[in-house]
Design a protein that fits this description.
Length: about 90
């Protein structure tokens, strides 16, 4: 796998999953030295407003749940970064 870095901060170490809407990568936050998971919306959906809205809604739901459930991955950030990828970053 070629080196993949998102936002000049998150260095991908491996791909850990893929689904119909997104791919999930294990990465290292180069600033804080923490391992994170990055969910990346497939590029074919990035220009589809309905898919983008659904992706953001899912990220917001995860953020709301993780505040009440200590064992659930916590949403750290959601942003549009390099190459117009839509990301959700969990730790």
């Amino acid at each position: 796998m070629e080196e993949l870095v998102f936002g000049r901060r998150y260095r991908v170490t491996e791909k850990i999953g893929s689904g119909g809407m997104a791919e999930v990568y294990k990465a290292v936050d180069e600033v804080l030295g923490r391992t994170v998971a990055i969910k990346v919306l497939h590029s074919r959906y990035a220009s589809d407003a309905a898919f983008v809205a659904r992706f953001r809604q899912e990220a917001q739901a995860a953020a709301n749940l993780s505040r009440r459930t200590p064992r659930m991955a916590r949403l750290r950030a959601e942003s549009e970064v390099v190459r117009a990828d839509l990301l959700a970053i969990f730790e």
